[in-house]
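Name: Holliday junction branch migration complex subunit RuvA
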Amino acid sequence: MIAHVRGTVTALGLTSAVLEVGGVGLELQCTPGTLATLRHGTTATLPTSMVVREDSLTLFGFLDDDEKSCFELVQTASGVGPKLAQAILAVLGPDDLRIAVAGEDVKTLCKVPGIGQKGAQRIILELKDRIGAPVGRGAAVHVPVADAWRSQVVEGLTGLGWSAKEAEKAVDVVSADAGPTPDIGALLRAALQTLRKA
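Structure predicted for Holliday junction branch migration complex subunit RuvA:
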């Protein structure tokens, strides 16, 4: 399998980035937090996890090995596939996930679109003894962005499973402090933090 990818960032979308490696553009599905760290035209190295299905090969890219490990571990819980695992990491960082599972915090896990109370309880039950303790990574810095990105951010949030109404509300909150330099990844991440606190 492909353990990591190093290449030039040639495209950034709402849910993915394209890295050119040896003349080939590889599309990596990433969380908003990971996308916020990438810049078009720069070289990046991302740990990756490949998900093989009958009809597709999907490459997921991560900020670091810790995020990748959590992505792979959470999929061992019943009913959690790669898309839901990615949504979990988009809403909760690896340490937040560990704290929620260790503290049996069903309410926090239910903030992830697609996870109900029973699903959260199942994840806690199946991962509690295997997820480990928080590693103490610092909180990400959120860069405010301009209102011009509003529709794209709403689309990204609805793509992760929130309703259009919830997405609009979250964007309203982060738009209040928007600056002149648009950074869609940072705005999306900030909106996710707002939804997480709601």
